[in-house]
TrEMBL record:
It is found in: Cell membrane. PROSITE patterns: PROKAR_LIPOPROTEIN. Pfam families: PLDc_N. The lineage of its organism: Bacteria, Pseudomonadati, Bacteroidota, Saprospiria, Saprospirales. It is a multi-pass membrane protein. It comes from the Bacteria. Residues 45-87 form the Cardiolipin synthase N-terminal domain. GO terms for cellular component: plasma membrane. Its main location: membrane. The chain crosses the membrane at residues 30-52, 64-85. This is Cardiolipin synthase N-terminal domain-containing protein.
Length: 93
């Protein structure tokens, strides 16, 4: 199963987990923590997939270090940028 084809659905699935429940004032905090937990877990999965893909690719060491630093210092956005513009393109960095 190729998990990469499901990556565009991650934001939609995160939003759908917050829909459809009527929460009272006291439960709103707990519901928000659940959404943050789900979003954090999904972000961690995307970051780990980006790092594993970066390690697998036969890129030069300099390119791997640059992308690794981008993923490390800008975690979620860096991983998304790697998947959008960094994979399978020799001209980026």
């Amino acid at each position: 199963m190729n998990i990469r084809r499901f990556l565009p659905l991650v934001p939609l699935l995160t939003l759908l987990t917050a829909c459809g429940e009527d929460v009272s004032t006291g439960e709103a905090v707990a519901g928000g923590i659940g959404i943050w937990a789900i979003g954090s877990i999904l972000a961690l999965i995307i970051i780990v997939l980006a790092v594993l893909d970066l390690i697998k690719k036969p890129y030069p060491l300099e390119k791997k270090l640059i992308w690794g630093a981008i993923i490390f210092f800008v975690p979620f956005l860096g991983a998304l940028l790697y998947f959008v513009i960094g994979r399978n393109k020799e001209s980026v960095f």
